[in-house]
Design a protein that fits this description.
The chain is of the alpha+beta class and about 140 residues long.
């Protein structure tokens, strides 16, 4: 799935779109990538002489991948006009710093669905090293 296809799945847009491509997708799992552009404005102020991508943005990338997964569930899991929004984040463990020029490998698995609530596990890695692991939940809401 390329960037234009991704934009049909979720409402996020630049400069807050944290998925560049989807490389694997099935009913319960998504794997996506994001190149961390060295020119991102966030690096001007987040440790200017030692730039590190904020951990909260790693979590955001995972949640955006999860929203893409939910949007693609078979059987019309997402009614027209509704979007998944994060409602909970648990068990966040930061393990590796992410630097300008790194490529994020984002994996999200849907573990449970209860009506319009979705429970997911995520892992974001750079190369062979895990940068963050987290569990999160999303619920469907009307936009706006």
């Amino acid at each position: 799935m390329n960037i234009e296809q991704i934009k049909t799945c979720i409402p996020h847009r630049e400069p807050f779109l944290w998925i560049d491509e989807v490389v694997e997708l099935n009913d319960t799992h998504i794997r996506a990538r994001k190149l961390v552009d060295p020119g991102l404005d966030v690096f001007r102020g987040h440790y200017p002489n030692h730039p590190i991508l904020p951990g909260v943005l790693l979590c955001e990338a995972a949640m955006q991948a999860g929203a893409i997964l939910i949007s693609q569930l078979p059987g019309g899991a997402v009614p027209a006009g509704q979007v998944p929004v994060a409602t909970r984040i648990n068990n966040v463990k930061f393990r590796q710093m992410v630097r300008p020029g790194d490529t994020l490998d984002i994996e999200v698995t849907l573990t449970e669905r209860l009506a319009n609530a979705f429970y997911l596990d995520a892992k974001v890695s750079v190369g062979e090293k895990v940068a963050v692991r987290l569990d999160f939940a999303c619920s469907l809401v009307p936009p706006g």
